[in-house]
Amino acid sequence: MANPLPIAAAVFAAGAFALSIAMLPGDHEIAAMDLRDQSYSAAVENFELAWRAGDRSEATLAQLARAYIGSGKVDEAIAAFQGFLADNPDHIQAKDALLATYYDGQRMDEYYRLLVALASEDKDVPRIRQAIEAAQDREDVRTEALLLARLRDADKVNNVELRRLAWLQARFNAPDKALALLESLPRGEFTSDDALFAFRLALDLGDVDRAVRVAAPFVRQRDSGIQTAALFVDLLRAYGELQAAGGLLAALPQGDAPADRLARADLLLTIGDAAGAIAEARQAGLDAPDEATRRAAITTLIDAGDDETLAAVVASPDLTQLTPEHQATVIAALIDRSERAGADASLRQALAAIDPAALAANPALAAR
Predict the structure, then answer these.
(1) 220, 273, 290, 324: most buried, per Cβ within 10 A?
(2) Is-above-0.70 flag for pTM?
(3) What is the CA radius of gyration of the chain?
(4) Do 225 and 253 meet the contact criterion of CB atoms below 8 Å apart?
(5) Torsion of CA 243, 245, 246, 249, to 10 degrees
């Protein structure tokens, strides 16, 4: 944490504490001469005489504090400021000087309390931010939230601070306040991370329609919509909102590229829409020219329980071209279908045609 003011200047820095002491008779004159000569101990003695004699002026306080600090008596300087503030509680320059003296005297608890109090009393944005930084250093999240709210109320909060305040409100079990803060971000500054956070908050509040409204603009993006949709769909599934997930997927860009169709098919499959997944995967192309797309389409159709595809795969060389994991998927699906159908002749023939090496690589399937 940065020192708020150098101590030698602190007691002279603000307003009435900027001194131009006239030559005064008696104790003042002698003390001022001692101070100019850096005879701090002598200055302390003479300014104390003036102070005890009833001169409680700002000028005398500032010079006395400087003499105390110069002679290493920081605690005495603090006591002098505290005594002055007891009689003048609204004197902001004295508070500023006391704050700096607390810091240089390493009285950090008192420094922090006074800094927060000052930040809570006025609209000085740099001071409020300084207090927020101090609260973060101390992990005092309640005070941090109050000060961030003060910045927001003064219309001085930036987007980073607004997001932090939203996170703190969510931590304090106030998802409604957190969501309102996120939704107040400028449209062009509302990122996909903000949307994902707001989406979770809306679901926590049970407002599924609001969650979908937050997510839809990001799902519609052609470059990243499918990847973003996967995150939102996973959350909707976790909350048991499969119908809403289907509605959100309807907002996906309707690209005809095989990769886009397969990605949509996989998402449809995760929410139990097997018919939609089969339609997308078939259009992606069992007859696609590249082998990788053809295999991906076959795997998706098998996962969706497309019996026609199972029969087609068994009758083609594609089975032996699949990876061992995909071969195991085909074999398991064929066995399940065989059991459901009573192992008719065509399925028995298909199973008999499976490469023994594929079964050998999957003992659990071979046992079935």
Answers:
(1) 273
(2) no
(3) 37
(4) yes
(5) 160
Rounded CA gap, 242 and 265, in Å? Answer: 15
Nearest to 17 by CA among 50, 58, 47: 58
Q: For the chain, which ranges sit under pLDDT 50?
A: 2, 5-37, 343
> Rounded CA gap, 284 and 281, in Å?
5
b (16+ CB within 10 A) / e for 181-206: bbbebeeeebebebbbbbbbbbbbee
Contact present, 355 and 366 (Cβ < 8 Å): no
Q: Which two tokens stand for residue 342?
A: 């009573």
Among 154, 148, 206, 151, residue whose Cα is nearest residue 176:
206
- 252 vs 247: CA distance, rounded Å: 10
Q: Which tens digit of pLDDT belongs to each residue from 316-353? A: 555 555 566 666 666 666 666 555 555 455 555 555 65
